[in-house]
Each structure stands twice: as structure tokens, then as C-alpha cells.
């Protein structure tokens, strides 16, 4: 009898453990872990409350379809939130969690990396003295299947979430609920997105304005995509030359007279040449005179660090993938896509593209351990779910991407709305010159230019990983927020 009882008890304990394990590997539709902390920003103490939790996405019948993980930071020594700005933050992918800007840019903690952004061991984090939490509360949101966010109703079609416009629709509903629950309708509000997150926030500001009647003061585009603006053909080919020049300058492979100049002196010259000479030359295609073709190729070689020969072989239209493989080929090195300061080594020096992006692999190396430690030890959020840096979101419907025009229309309709673009000069994934091109094409008559601004940094896609740019880029956001809060009782009118 005793033996039988012990066996039954053992089976019961084992069964309970199994059930517990299953439950902790499922997302809670609603949850919250609240902690209090403080950070010193620009020499001043900033106390804050952090809420790490989940909140549902509902279907039309009010049933949860998915649950999104978020982390909400509120300054606690501000008694009146009426005029306290709220920043809603997204990363990109699509399929990327909010970890990147959360733990390396605007949040109260930052990644343990060296001053140029390379991983360090032991992995970890420290207080971020440049966070924007002194001037604004921040919520970092993980879209469906990223971070700890998951679909909870398996019968719901993946197309409900995974596409340019589907993503915008359900996230707008979620934001509407979040702002209502937190009683932040009166706050000046800002959207910030990085990479594909810029596509997301460009569409969201329009969706929230036109479908939820929620108006924003600003949108911050960090390393923006093309935002659905047409640039196929000659424009797409020509626009990369300024990025090539910046990268070649960084690696010291430009001719001596150019190399001796500062980057700020070189880029305006290359930009002008791109628009005035390279774009028309590529547009002429086979009709371009042979002597003129050679002249253009020679000047492109001068600016790019590539040979005239390979530029001619590519009909003046050198793909970025070839550039990353070719620039330092004679040194046996490749360069990074998302940050061309990073160098890599391939199995073979031959070929037309690299084996891997040395920038992205370096970042994954640093971020994943640090966030898992941070979530458990600082945010006190307990779960056995895997935090998806990159989640399964395919197939992604990229059709009908009109987000750039949607953002521009939202600006025309809302005189309070301003846009700031932040780009790294060494970003080859979403290059800085195409980010400028976005601004020109969104505003063909020039009437929005006084509400658009551009900031460039001597780093890559995640410019904030470089210590100097972490401070500067946060200062730029801080200044943008303060400048775009209208004076009390200032009417929104033209």
C-alpha cells in the first residue's frame, strides 16, 4: 500500500509539473509585472515605473485573437500626464521584436557593447544616461509572433496579421486600447519606427488619425524603408552612389585627395553628381555615348572605391550585394549590409555576394542573451516562452504599400504633425540618400518641408550602437519632441 501511494504521488507531481511547463510556454492573454526603478539622464535623476505585460488583440466579436507583449515606462515624479509626451516604439523586419531600440536606444537600459557596437562578454546591460525618458514616457511593442507576442486563436487566418495593411489595422486597434486604458488621449503623441518599422508607423499615423481620430505630433523614421514610393529602374540604381562613397571613405580606399577630406565635405558633392549626371546617364541606357559612359564610370569609380572596369561591366548600375563583396575583396574581407563598418570573412574570396552579413551576426550575438537576462532580472517578467528576435511571420503580403503617401496625407490633414528622419551614412540596407529621396517624393510641391527634418550619423542601420551617436541621436529626438509640442491653446490651422 505504501509503495502504491508513493508511486501515485510521484505520478501526480510529474503530471502537475508537465501541466505547469505547458502553461508557462503559452502566452497569457493579459498579464503585467510592475517594477520601480530610476535612471540618471543628463545628470538628473529620473524615477520611473516599468510595466512588462501582455494585452489582447480582439476580433470583431470581442474574442482574443492574439496577445501582444509590451514594456511601458512611465516617469513617476510627474503628477499631471496631460502634457506629458508618449512615444510608441516599433522595430521592423517584418518579424522583428522591439528589442533593438528598447535595449540599445531610447529605453532606460542599454546593451553591454563597446563604443563602436561590437559584442562584449560577459553579456549584459547598464543604465542608459541618454534615454529620452526624461522628456517622454515610452511603450515598446512587439507585434504578433515577435518577442513574447503570440497568436492565441489558431483558427484565425495568418493574413489577419501578416501583411503591410493587416499589420497596420490590428496594431492601430491595439494602440487605441492601450492609450484609452492608460488615459493618455490628451498627451502629445509620437510614433517611432526603425527599418520596416518606418513602413509600419507611416501607415499607423494615418490609420489612427482617420479611423480612430487619434492625432499625433510627430513621427520619427529611423533608417527608413522606401515607404512604397516608386523608385524602380534608374533611380534605384543611381541612388546608392552616395552610400558607396561614404563606405569607401570609412575604409580608406578613396583616392588621396578625397580621402583627405571630411565626410561632410564629400557627400554633398557626390549627391549632386548622382542627381545631375549618374541618374540621367543610367536613364539613357544603351543610347548613352561610349565616351560619356566611360567618363561617368571613371567618376563613379573615383567616388565609390570600385574599379572603372567593374562599373562598366554592370552598365553603371552596381548592385549593393556586389559592392559588399567587392570593395575589400583584395584584402580578403567583406563588409556589412546593415553597417558597412563591420568586416567579415567568406569561405571563398570569389563570387558576387557575401556569405553572411557580419553586422547582423554581431548584433544577434550581443542582444539575445542581454534581453533574456534583462526581462527576468530587471523587468521581473517570468515565462518559458522563447523571446523571438525574429519571429515566423511569413507569408507577408507586401502588396498595396502606400505608406509614404499615407504619412504625407496625414501631415497635410494635421498641421501639428512633424516628421524626422534619422539615418546612418554606412547603412546599406536602408541607405541615407534614399531616405532623403523619400522626403522629396512625399512632398512634391514643397509645402511640407518646414515640418520635415533629416539627421545623419557616422554609423549604420542602428546608429545608436555607436557610443557617440547614441548620445547625439537621442538628443535629436529630445529636441524634436520639445519643438513639436505647440504652445498652449495654439490652434491647428494653416
Automatic annotation (TrEMBL):
Biological process annotations from GO: proteolysis
Keyword annotations from UniProtKB, A to Z: Carboxypeptidase, Glycoprotein, Hydrolase, Protease, Signal
Top-rank lineage group of the source organism: Bacteria
Keyword Protease attached: yes
Keyword Protease: yes
GO molecular function, one term: serine-type carboxypeptidase activity
Protein's name according to its UniProt entry: Carboxypeptidase C (Cathepsin A)
Origin species: Belliella pelovolcani
Leader peptide range in chain numbering: 1-21
A Pfam family hit: Peptidase_S10
Amino acid at each position: 500500500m505504501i509503495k502504491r501511494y508513493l508511486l501515485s504521488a510521484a505520478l501526480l507531481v510529474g503530471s502537475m509539473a508537465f501541466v505547469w511547463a505547458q502553461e508557462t510556454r503559452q502566452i497569457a492573454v493579459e498579464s503585467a509585472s510592475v517594477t520601480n526603478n530610476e535612471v540618471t539622464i543628463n545628470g538628473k535623476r529620473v524615477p520611473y515605473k516599468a510595466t512588462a505585460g501582455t494585452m489582447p488583440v480582439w476580433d470583431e466579436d470581442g474574442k482574443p485573437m492574439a496577445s501582444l507583449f509590451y514594456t511601458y515606462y512611465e516617469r513617476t515624479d510627474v503628477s499631471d500626464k496631460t502634457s506629458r509626451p508618449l512615444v510608441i516604439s516599433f522595430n521592423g523586419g517584418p518579424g522583428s521584436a522591439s528589442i533593438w531600440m528598447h535595449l540599445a536606444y531610447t529605453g532606460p537600459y542599454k546593451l553591454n557593447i563597446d563604443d563602436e557596437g561590437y559584442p562584449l562578454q560577459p553579456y549584459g546591460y547598464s543604465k542608459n544616461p541618454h534615454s529620452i525618458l526624461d522628456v517622454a514616457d515610452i511603450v515598446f511593442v512587439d507585434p504578433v509572433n515577435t518577442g513574447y507576442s503570440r497568436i492565441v486563436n489558431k483558427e484565425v487566418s495568418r493574413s489577419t496579421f501578416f501583411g503591410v495593411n493587416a499589420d497596420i489595422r490590428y496594431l492601430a486597434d491595439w494602440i487605441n486600447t492601450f492609450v484609452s486604458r492608460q488615459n493618455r488621449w490628451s498627451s502629445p503623441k509620437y510614433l517611432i519606427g526603425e527599418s520596416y518599422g518606418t513602413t509600419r508607423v507611416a501607415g499607423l499615423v494615418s490609420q489612427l488619425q482617420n479611423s480612430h481620430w487619434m492625432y499625433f505630433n510627430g513621427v520619427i523614421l529611423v533608417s527608413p524603408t522606401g515607404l512604397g514610393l516608386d523608385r524602380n529602374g534608374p533611380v534605384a540604381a543611381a541612388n546608392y552612389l552616395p552610400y558607396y562613397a561614404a563606405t569607401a571613405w570609412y575604409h580608406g580606399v578613396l583616392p588621396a585627395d578625397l580621402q583627405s577630406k571630411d565626410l561632410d565635405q564629400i557627400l554633398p558633392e557626390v549627391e549632386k553628381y548622382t542627381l545631375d549626371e549618374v541618374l540621367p546617364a543610367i536613364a539613357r541606357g544603351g543610347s548613352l555615348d561610349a565616351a560619356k559612359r566611360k567618363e561617368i564610370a571613371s567618376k563613379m569609380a573615383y567616388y565609390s572605391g570600385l574599379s572603372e572596369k567593374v562599373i562598366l561591366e554592370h552598365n553603371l548600375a552596381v548592385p549593393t550585394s556586389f559592392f559588399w563583396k567587392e570593395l575589400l575583396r583584395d584584402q580578403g574581407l567583406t563588409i556589412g549590409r546593415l553597417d558597412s563598418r563591420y568586416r567579415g570573412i567568406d569561405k571563398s574570396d570569389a563570387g558576387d555576394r557575401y556569405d553572411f552579413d557580419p553586422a547582423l551576426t554581431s548584433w544577434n550575438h550581443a542582444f539575445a542573451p542581454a534581453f533574456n537576462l534583462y526581462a527576468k532580472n530587471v523587468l521581473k517578467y517570468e515565462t518559458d516562452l522563447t523571446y523571438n528576435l525574429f519571429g515566423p511571420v511569413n507569408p507577408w503580403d507586401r502588396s498595396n504599400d502606400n505608406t509614404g503617401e499615407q504619412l504625407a496625407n496625414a501631415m497635410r490633414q494635421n498641421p501639428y504633425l512633424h516628421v524626422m528622419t534619422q539615418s546612418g551614412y554606412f547603412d546599406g540596407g536602408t541607405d541615407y540618400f534614399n531616405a532623403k529621396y523619400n522626403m522629396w517624393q512625399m512632398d512634391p510641391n514643397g509645402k511640407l518641408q518646414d515640418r520635415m527634418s533629416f539627421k545623419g550619423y557616422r554609423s549604420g542601420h542602428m546608429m545608436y550602437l555607436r557610443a557617440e551617436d547614441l548620445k547625439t541621436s537621442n538628443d535629436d529626438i529630445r529636441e524634436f519632441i520639445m519643438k513639436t509640442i505647440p504652445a498652449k491653446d495654439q490652434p491647428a490651422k494653416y
